[in-house]
Amino acid sequence: xxxxxxxxxxxxxxxxxxxxxxxxxxxxxxxxxxxxxxxxxxxxxxxxxxxxxxxxxxxxxxxxxxxxxxxxxxxxxxxxxxxxxxxxxxxxxxxxxxxxxxxxxxxxxxxxxxxxxxxxxxxxxxxxxxxxxxxxxxxxxxxxxxxxxxxxxxxxxxxxxxxxxxxxxxxxxxxxxxxxxxxxxxxxxxxxxxxxxxxxxxxxxxxxxxxxxxxxxxxxxx
Length: 222
Prior knowledge:
This protein is mostly beta strands. The protein contains two helices and 14 strands, in the order αββββββββββαββββ. The model has no long low-confidence stretch (mean pLDDT 87).
């Protein structure tokens, strides 16, 4: 998925590209996609946690949910569905910039914990919203190890799961669907200034005016 993942708030350095172009591809000097083949395997209770420095058992195509055919690891039976899993990616620093570097996850279903180079970045709960970390101080010029643990109990948990049911893997029918676990939106790196716009709040409470509030991010606020 090569398209720029956040067209609502694209950033640009040079300022000589049209907004239409930037909306679709962004400024390639400020971001890089981490989509593609990652290492993946179901959680093994007997293995070291987290499995730093260890290759995982198979590969998955990010950002497709585990249960989708495009992921490459879709379970063929409901009893093979993994509710706990690991992702691993090794990557080099794409470029040496002068600002901060943010790691963005568009969405991970459902509960996740992230590590970079043996340091825990944080956790996130929720399958439909994005989250980010400032990873500037942990990056290496080469050989960065990104690990992600995901827990998604599907209908076995207390979280909203809609019509996702594991049984539909065995008997797809009616108005129920296969679960949608793991990374299912773009993962990407973004370079930002020391102080940057983190998000926009748009208020249109009246018919005569619109109020836009910019929330700023800075070092340590990821």
